[in-house]
Amino acid sequence: MSKTPHSQLFDVIVVGAGLAGLVAATEATASGARVILIDQESEANLGGQAHWSFGGIFLVDSPEQRRLGVKDSLELAQQDWENTAGFDRSEDDWARKWARAYVTWAAGEKREWLHQRGVRFFPVVGWAERGGAGAQGPGNSVPRFHITWGTGPGLLEPFIRAARVAEAKGQLTMLWRHQLDDLVLADGHVSGVRGTILQDDNAERGKASNRIKVANFEFFAPSVIVATGGIGGNLEKVRAAWPARLGTAPESMVAGVPAHVDGRGLDIAQKAGARLINGDRMWHYTEGIANWDPVWERHGIRILPGPSSLWLDATGKRLPDPLWPGFDTLGTLEHLRGTGYDYSWFILNRRIIGKEFALSGSEQNPDLTGKDIRAVLARARVDVPGPVQAFLDRGEDFIQSDTLDELVTKMNELSGENLLDPASVASVVAARDGAVENAFGKDGQLAAINSARRYLGDKLVRSVKPHRLLDPKGGGLIAVRLRILTRKSLGGIQTDLDSRVLDFAGEPIPGLYAAGEAAGFGGGGFHGYRALEGTFLGGCLFSGRAAGRHAGGVDARS
Ligand SMILES: Cc1cc2nc3c(=O)[nH]c(=O)nc-3n(C[C@H](O)[C@H](O)[C@H](O)COP(=O)(O)OP(=O)(O)OC[C@H]3O[C@@H](n4cnc5c(N)ncnc54)[C@H](O)[C@@H]3O)c2cc1C
Hints:
8-stranded mixed beta sheet, FAD/NAD(P)-binding domain, flavoprotein, 2 domains, 18 helices, Flavocytochrome C3, Chain A, domain 1, alpha/beta, 6-stranded mixed beta sheet, globular, oxidoreductase, binds flavin-adenine dinucleotide, 558 residues
């Protein structure tokens, strides 16, 4: 057993160098605490999932919204959150308090807090997760998805900078390839961590690394913060937690998160007495595509779709209203699981894909990630942006054709199941196209597109003018096979508003904190059943901040 020579010198141990861990560590050092931050991966993975993220941030009544004529308010956002979360369990008590506190923060201090740290936002606010089931249904009543200038890496920047400064001052020690295996308990207090030092590994960021043990370690401190992320990279765990209300777990899925999102940290916290709740609540997407250039195993990319693609299930039936692209993530997942197939289809054309397909992920948006204004403006001049064209050229889920008949034949070939009848797909397309001529009509999706285009942000960059899919000026037909893509765990370790971990009796476990996805972004699941989007990174900031401040300022001193 190798004990660190300076094992008595730390006030706080943070496990996990993702966004939540970095925020917690730097908040704790800012309170004067001496902190050690350990991570099972190599330094190449600094920042965890947030590095890969699109950097979408939920803000309420921001200057960016106001400039685009969006009228938002704390009351409207609280109402949207409650309707979306659908809290209905007694163990939701703390999650509900977290939700209220978080929305208040998002409508108040959050933007300024980030601004002071140098974070800026793209001026066009996105309208993610629109709902569509009425004012009291789930979803965002108004656009709230603020894209960080620099995407995920841009959001991480100030926290990595602060960590480097604290490291240089000797306040923060970062240790890589240190895998937590156990929390050390003494008289009901958590007083340290135990684990395995793993063999060095040159694996690139995001790829699975070896688990070869070279030594053990033990560190002690009055406070330990668990920020180890969720379970989305462990497909077996996802299947095991799959709730019956979403049908059966898919046999075939793509992974939307890197290999390190393995869920082990949750089990370790549970072993130390932490109460894990809401494990059956998760946020997976139905618009996943296999990455043609995968980083991790079964790497999937999520399409953030504009509203115009025609969505068919595997047998060719159009999805019911309001399950249009970008409206209701879990409603769509639930519906598609009911079809008995693990995939569905978008049918669209080149004009739609060019304007309406955004791909989630920092590496899929080199212009925004690289803060390259010219390249961002150039998007408007090309018919299809480069990263989307790369999928058209090389993505295994993409099909192109000039005729619908041939397109459907190729779709059947790709699935190998021959489930699509060309005549019935043609009649679905014809019915949809026939409804385009008027700016009014009984087609719900077209009405929703017309309504979306009254929002300037959508009209400018996210939705094309309704037109016939078969219009020759549409630039050729496209079909995309959509798979289920794992992403976020909405449940996790139950915490109070100071990020203190609670046991089954609802009492804080002295010395133990949790933050970020491991804590269900706060309280063991502040989203409830569903998310408004852009709320995950923000949940890491908010809960990491609370954990770092409290552990660094309160327990570290006692
Ligand atoms: C492609 C992509 C796009 C996304 N886009 C958005 C978006 O636009 N908006 C949004 O709000 N959210 C988005 N998200 C979600 C968001 O990025 C994550 O929910 C968030 O970054 C999770 O951060 P975390 O710090 O809690 O966990 P993680 O980033 O998973 O970090 C956990 C760290 O803990 C380490 N660890 C785990 N177990 C152990 C152990 N036993 N011992 C030691 N170390 C351990 C891991 O190696 C990892 O470094 C996106 C995610 C992805 C992947």
